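In response to the reviewer comment on reproducibility (Comment 2.3), we provide here a single inverse folding case reported in full, input and output, so that an independent group could reproduce the run without further information from us. The structure tokens appear first.
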């Protein structure tokens, strides 16, 4: 049975943990506000550009840019997985990696039986996870979210675009946690290359006629790399916001659990102290009775 001293030490320890988790929650909340502002600012432009390109992609007979060309045989697939650099964020990483493992081990063999899967992990947790798997790692991007910068996209994009253009990869898929709300983050699996027609996005742009100057191919050569950069940047922003939201929620739950544990330990301490006092009183009474009968 735990002594009063043991229980007191546990209470002090849990209180210290509660202070740490409470502070981490506040830090995550502050970072989440900035991350939300960034993703909200980026989404309208990205969505509009996506709609325009989806409208162009739906005109298959006119589209000849390499980024729109679907390969007859898919032999190599690149999956860009955006995880986090740090832990203590609940199921943020585990849900993503579980979905990635299922997609690689089950889904891809069904759709592309002869395809080899290559991985480009972003974030230390993603690098650690895929280092334990047999899939070849094309490049590693650790410590991205310590200071999130668009330069990361500038380093990441050429690996994706040149790999697809020169035939190293026949398909490129992007996997990340999409920020929905403070309490909801969904794993998103988004085909990045080749650019596929999405009827919903294309419908929004239906009826729009575009005049190209100087030429359509020149405009596409300029817009498409920017579009891919924006998709990668949006994935990083979404993942960053989702990570902070998940960490804030996880630290809030940890703080609540710590306080509940402190209450339970305090109750155990009071019971043990009361039992100790009662035992001492019984010993005193028993000693006094023994003296009377002597």
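Designed residues, in position order:
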């Amino acid at each position: 049975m735990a002594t009063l001293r043991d229980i007191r030490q546990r209470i002090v320890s849990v209180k210290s943990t509660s202070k740490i988790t409470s502070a981490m929650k506040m830090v995550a909340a502050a970072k989440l506000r900035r991350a939300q502002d960034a993703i909200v600012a980026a989404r309208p432009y990205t969505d509009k550009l996506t709609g325009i390109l989806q409208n162009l992609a739906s005109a298959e007979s006119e589209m000849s840019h390499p980024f729109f060309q679907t390969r007859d045989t898919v032999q190599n697939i690149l999956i860009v997985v955006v995880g986090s650099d740090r832990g203590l964020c609940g199921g943020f990483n585990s849900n993503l990696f579980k979905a990635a493992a299922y997609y690689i081990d089950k889904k891809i063999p069904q759709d592309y039986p002869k395809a080899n899967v290559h991985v480009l992990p972003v974030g230390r947790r993603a690098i650690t996870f895929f280092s334990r798997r047999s899939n070849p790692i094309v490049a590693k991007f650790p410590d991205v979210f310590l200071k999130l910068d668009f330069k990361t996209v500038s380093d990441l994009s050429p690996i994706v675009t040149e790999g697809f253009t020169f035939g190293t990869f026949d398909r490129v898929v992007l996997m990340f946690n999409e920020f929905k709300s403070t309490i909801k983050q969904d794993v998103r699996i988004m085909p990045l290359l080749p650019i596929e027609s999405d009827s919903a996005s294309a419908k929004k742009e239906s009826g729009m006629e575009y005049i190209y100057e100087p030429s359509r191919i020149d405009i596409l050569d300029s817009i498409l790399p920017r579009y891919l950069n924006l998709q990668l940047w949006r994935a990083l922003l979404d993942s960053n916001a989702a990570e902070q939201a998940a960490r804030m929620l996880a630290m809030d739950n940890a703080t609540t659990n710590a306080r509940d544990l402190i209450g339970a330990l305090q109750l155990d301490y009071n019971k043990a102290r009361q039992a100790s006092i009662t035992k001492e009183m019984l010993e005193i009474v028993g000693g006094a009775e023994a003296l009377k009968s002597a």
